């Protein structure tokens, strides 16, 4: 890890000039790319991500005062200071330091601590922000591990992942837990099937004759700053309740689409048929949902909708449920192809990725023109499969490229998307790269 070592040394120097002292330890947490399984973790379904080599690094020095001082090597992110015993997370402005505070507060609340020691922290991230590679969750995870280390306490990786997944919701994003899980549970050289309730990770060996290439659309997407993400979460929740009611289940206790399948004891294919039977393609008004469930508008607003979805007038239930059940099936097919490794494995995996993008674009409506253009360019120049990755509405694509075509692929995609669209040269440098599965979060005592 020579590059990481150089970064640690540089971070140590910057820390010294910033705080006039030496860090006691460093924490690293990686970003991730989701290969397949988009927008289904918060519905209870398995996903298939891998950690990338890009990460968040934090240099840390515990201090005797109760002040938390946060600084960032990126001059765009201003310094922040607060009392360690009075953490306030501002949901209205998802500024960078709030993600650190999420991880800090999550550990504090888990152990029920009121008096916390202060610390000086310098953060250095090389995950492009708003790119769908999970820079915000990596910072939450890094902060959780920093706080745990300062306290001298220990938790399993699974416990840490669950605490950080829960604590990221302090910022107002109703995520599902994939990002935090892979950040802690990742291992070099393998992707992971991440399952929930209970959380567990299984190795998935990717085919040897191909590489995954990440391409940044250069359209920033901030989950916490727009309502798109939380509205989709709510549409899935409402779809689960309407499907449960349709099948005579106790719908008021149901929150996730996976629960409906489990309670009915049927396959994902059968759930797609139930969706066709029970839901209509036209958007549902709040009144129609209330009438079907037998509740008042006030009950819908206060007991089901979240504060950031209460103003929505219509909800697309059929499209969202159809995406979730079909995407959950694609994840399992992808894993099966990797395990069986047939001679045309790369072709089959690529087709599953292409189907995933179509579903994200048409059924979940979480793509954007630039992502669609980039996916088309990647396929044109040799990708067997290409799809948006992360929340969408901007960010990155991930493409499965035969290893012997990598060089020409990178050259051609660079020319066709970045140069012709005259994207910012600063962005271009980090915008297109091949990646292999990296390792999970770590604590270093020495730089």
UniProtKB/TrEMBL annotation:
Keywords, in A-Z order: ATP-binding, Kinase, Nucleotide-binding, Transferase
Galactokinase N-terminal domain: residues covered: 14-62
One GO term (biological process): galactose metabolic process
Annotated PANTHER family: GALACTOKINASE-RELATED, MEVALONATE KINASE/GALACTOKINASE
Entry's family note: Belongs to the GHMP kinase family. GalK subfamily.
Molecular function GO labels: ATP binding; galactokinase activity; N-acetylgalactosamine kinase activity
Residues covered by the GHMP kinase C-terminal domain: 342-402
NCBIfam families per the UniProt record, alphabetical: gal_kin
Name of the protein: N-acetylgalactosamine kinase
Source organism: Peromyscus maniculatus bairdii
Reaction catalysed by this enzyme: N-acetyl-alpha-D-galactosamine + ATP = N-acetyl-alpha-D-galactosamine 1-phosphate + ADP + H(+)
Domain of life of the native organism: Eukaryota
EC number: 2.7.1.157
A Pfam family the protein falls into: GHMP_kinases_C
InterPro entries per the UniProt record, alphabetical: Galactokinase, Galactokinase_CS, GalKase_N, GHMP_kinase_C_dom, GHMP_kinase_C_sf, GHMP_kinase_N_dom, GHMP_knse_ATP-bd_CS, Mevalonate/galactokinase
């Amino acid at each position: 890890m020579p590059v990481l070592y150089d970064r640690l040394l540089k971070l140590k120097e910057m820390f010294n000039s910033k705080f006039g002292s030496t860090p006691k330890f460093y924490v690293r947490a990686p970003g991730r790319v989701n290969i397949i399984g988009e927008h289904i973790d918060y519905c209870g379904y398995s996903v298939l991500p891998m950690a990338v080599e890009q990460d968040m690094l934090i240099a840390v020095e515990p201090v005797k005062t109760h002040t938390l001082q946060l600084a960032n090597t990126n001059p765009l992110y201003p310094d922040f200071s607060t009392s360690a015993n009075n953490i306030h997370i501002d949901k209205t402005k998802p500024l960078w330091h709030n993600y650190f505070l999420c991880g800090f507060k999550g550990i504090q609340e888990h152990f029920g601590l009121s008096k916390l020691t202060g610390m000086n922290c310098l953060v250095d991230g090389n995950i492009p922000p708003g790119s769908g590679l999970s820079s915000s969750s990596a910072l939450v995870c890094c902060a959780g591990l920093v706080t745990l280390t300062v306290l001298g306490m220990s938790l399993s990786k699974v416990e840490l992942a669950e605490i950080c997944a829960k604590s990221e919701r302090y910022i107002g994003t109703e995520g599902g837990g994939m990002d935090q899980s892979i950040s802690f549970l990742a291992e070099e050289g393998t992707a992971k099937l991440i399952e929930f309730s209970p959380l567990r990770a299984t190795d998935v060996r990717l085919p040897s004759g191909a590489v995954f290439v990440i391409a940044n659309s250069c359209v920033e997407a901030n989950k916490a700053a727009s309502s798109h993400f939380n509205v989709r979460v709510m549409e899935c929740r409402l779809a689960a309740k309407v499907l449960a009611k349709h099948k005579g289940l106790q719908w008021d206790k149901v929150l996730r689409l996976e629960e409906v399948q489990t309670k009915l004891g049927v396959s994902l294919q059968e759930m797609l048929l139930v969706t066709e039977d029970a839901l209509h393609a036209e958007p549902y008004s709040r009144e129609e949902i209330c009438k079907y469930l037998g509740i008042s508008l006030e009950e819908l607003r206060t007991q089901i909708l979240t504060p950031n979805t209460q103003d929505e007038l219509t909800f697309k239930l059929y499209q969202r449920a159809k995406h979730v059940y079909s995407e959950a099936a694609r994840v399992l097919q992808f894993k099966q192809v990797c395990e069986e490794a047939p001679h045309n494995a790369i072709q089959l995996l690529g087709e599953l990725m292409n189907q995933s993008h179509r579903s994200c674009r048409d059924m979940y409506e979480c793509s954007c023109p630039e992502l669609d253009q980039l996916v088309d360019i990647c396929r044109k120049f040799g990708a067997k499969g290409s799809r948006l990755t992360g929340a969408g509405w901007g960010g990155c694509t991930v493409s499965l490229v035969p290893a012997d075509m990598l060089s020409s692929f990178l050259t051609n995609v660079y020319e066709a998307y970045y140069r012709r669209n005259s994207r910012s040269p600063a962005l271009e440098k980090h915008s297109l790269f091949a990646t292999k599965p990296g390792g999970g979060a770590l604590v270093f005592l020495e730089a």
